[in-house]
Amino acid sequence: MKKILIIDDDADLREIMKTALGRAYQIREAGSGGEGERAAVSFVPDLVVLDVMMESLTAGFDLARTLKGLPALRGCRILMITNIDNELQINYKAEAGDPDWLPVDDYIVKPVDPMGLKAKVDALLA
């Protein structure tokens, strides 16, 4: 069974994502960037679902770069969850996958639609 690590400081959103994904995947969750990094190293997920804004405005960006740099996580996919594209006018579709600026495989905008999340996760792990 494929493994997913959900890193988000919103416990309610983590619960929604766990409910949407839990039947098909093994799930672990973390509520902060630091906790998420430690969980990623011990759990070695196939996919990380990562919030952008946690302890700071750039916590998710920073953690994505850190995770992609860890040898044990080289094959790990990252799905970023955000609502700041509307606030900051960042075109994630153009930036996603840039190994230096935003080394993520895809993104999804809040509010998270559970069916849309599941479809993106399934596609990334196919």
Description of the molecule:
The chain is an alpha/beta fold and 126 residues long. The chain has a single domain (3-125), classed as Response regulator (Rossmann fold), CATH 3.40.50. It is built from six helices and five strands. Strands 2-1-3-4-5 form a five-stranded parallel β-sheet, with helices on both faces. The longest helix is centred in the C-terminal third of the chain and has 12 residues, at 114-125. The two termini are 12 Å apart.
Instruction: Write the element-wise H/E pattern from the N-terminal end onward.
Output: EHEHEHEHHEH
Largest sheet: 5 strands, parallel
Determine the fraction of residues in helical runs and give it as a percent range: 40-55%
* Counted beta strands: 5
- The named CATH superfamily: Response regulator
CATH class membership: Alpha Beta
Mean of all residue-level pLDDT scores: 87
What's the structural domain tally? 1
CATH topology: Rossmann fold
